[in-house]
Amino acid sequence: MALPRSPLYLVTQREALPPGVSLEQCVQEALQGGVEIVQLREKHADSREFLEIARGLQTICDAAEVPLVINDRVDIALACGCRAVHLGQSDLSVKDVCALMPTAKSIGVSAHDVSEATVACATDDVSLIGIGPIYATTSKSDAKEALGPRKLARIIDALRAYERTLSSANGRVSIVAIGGINASNAARVLHMTCNFDTGETEAGLAVISAIVSSPRPREAAQSLSDILADYRSEGRSHKPSREDLLANVVRLHDSSRESGGLLHHITNTVVQNQCANVALALRASPIMSMSPEEAGDLSAILGCLVINLGTLTDDSLRVMKEAGRHANSNKKPIVFDPVGVGASAFRQSKTDQLLDHVQMSIIKGNAGELAALSGDKSVRARGVDSAGGFADPVKAVRDLARQERCVVVLTGQIDYISDGMTVIKLSNGVPHLGNITGSGCATGTCIAAYASAAHSMSTTMRATVPQASIWGGGDMLSAAVGGILAMTVAAEIAMEKQPGGPSTFTGHLIDALYNLTAQNLVERARVEVV
Ligand SMILES: Nc1ncnc2c1ncn2[C@@H]1O[C@H](COP(=O)(O)OP(=O)(O)OP(=O)(O)O)[C@@H](O)[C@H]1O
Ligand SMILES: Cc1ncsc1CCO
Hints:
By secondary structure, the chain is an alpha/beta fold. The protein has helices at about 25-30, 45-65, 75-80, 95-100, 115-120, 150-165, 185-190, 210, 215-235, 240-260, 270-280, 295-300, 315-330, 345-355, 365-375, 395-405, 440-455, 465-470, 475-495, 500-515, 520-525, and strands at about 10, 35-40, 70, 85, 105-110, 125-130, 175-180, 205, 260-265, 285-290, 305-310, 335, 360-365, 380, 385, 405-410, 415-420, 425, 525-530. Strands 10-9-11-12-13-16-17-18-19 form a 9-stranded mixed beta sheet, with helices on both faces. It has an 8-stranded parallel beta barrel with strand order 1-2-3-4-5-6-7-8, surrounded by 5 helices. Strand 11, helix 13 and strand 12 (about 335) form a beta-alpha-beta unit. Adenosine-5'-triphosphate binds near residues 339, 385, 413, 438 and 443. The site of adenosine-5'-triphosphate (ATP) has 23 residues, from strand 15, helix 17 and helix 19. One of its GO terms (molecular function) is ATP binding.
């Protein structure tokens, strides 16, 4: 029986069953809900009891045509006629298991980092690797530090890159993510494991308590199986042309003028007023709220959340995490502006925490900020400003979009936008934008206004990146193009009013944003799909 590639994988734990429920009942129901592999894991049973349970589950799994895997105990697997085992790092080696069980059909191995994962996949004998723990878990007493979905993605990327170097006929190993996964965090895990070339997840989900401890294991399995299905069936849509993009921007512009959304800003104290005025000029409704207590209520009605790191404190980080969590579970877009992230170790480490916790839809920053996010030391930052640029900005935005699985916007004299596949170059704008504080922050507000429109039009406008559609609920690539065009084209119109300096320029800029038409955007757009 071949293993499914990204399976819903149940690991048993009798101690976690609700009172009165037998393991057989639980597994039976879980199989009806869509579980595709069952692993029998018994840490406290004696050998005879273990074998008896294994035989019972083997019968149930055979009837459902689902593979049963025995954790750790090759002797039990041999005795019950099961030819699949799963091994931890301190269990028997793969080589020893192959010697004991030459007829093994499937060997799985647990891994916590790139080195353990690559060692496991170097041999033809391993067909599945379980990577974890992804989140903190109570199901394993000796569990290592939680990896989080971003580290999981990096391990999978490294593993797949390593597989490509293998000259043997090794097939691609199946991967499952394990540790603290449940219906509320599963989509984030799958989002981060999506392969950019196929649009499908590279990993399945292994769960213990989310199914075993549920009073309704069939429904619990079914909801996880439905989430997985979203990440298997999404086809990748075509790369948009310049004409497609501009047509999308026009639709977003018209929609936002008709009914602008609510833009919840968690932003810095320097630009609050300016961003609220920019939102109003674009017919959106701003609300600057810093209370975690109301983040849930706001999330239910908002069009887009803006998270801006400008004057970060531990208190504001708490609000960002709480609002981000709500926005993610309500599938609302989030625009993240990592202002000055490279300026201090404090900002860098808090940003890492935030990105582990919240899936952004769009990240917008100058070169210094984006270089800090991607760990590129070649671009320097000066506080909140950038003191240089990328040697290859096209590659920089594409790579960061792939790393963070979202749309990335690089601002500067030339702006670049990528969803990880397509890169768009925008050359509108005027130098005065660099002479007023917070023009980048206000650009984040412009992008949020178009992202809100994209979210509300998500049923009619399909995203180019399937996984972005899950988190932004709409075409975030076109929204980013719309937001940048709005700011830079309005700035060009403002300059034509001949402002005396940065202060009058700011006034003209708000007026130009207020009077901006879709025709202005299309006629002036200097946009190129690279
Ligand atoms: N020299 C320039 N010529 C044209 N457009 C520019 C220039 N400098 C900035 N812009 C535009 O200004 C907007 C803000 O980008 P910028 O890179 O200045 O943000 P930032 O550094 O994050 O700003 P801040 O920290 O003040 O908020 C972008 O839309 C960008 O296109
Ligand atoms: C100057 C400044 N300092 C923190 S945020 C901010 C606004 C521009 O990013």
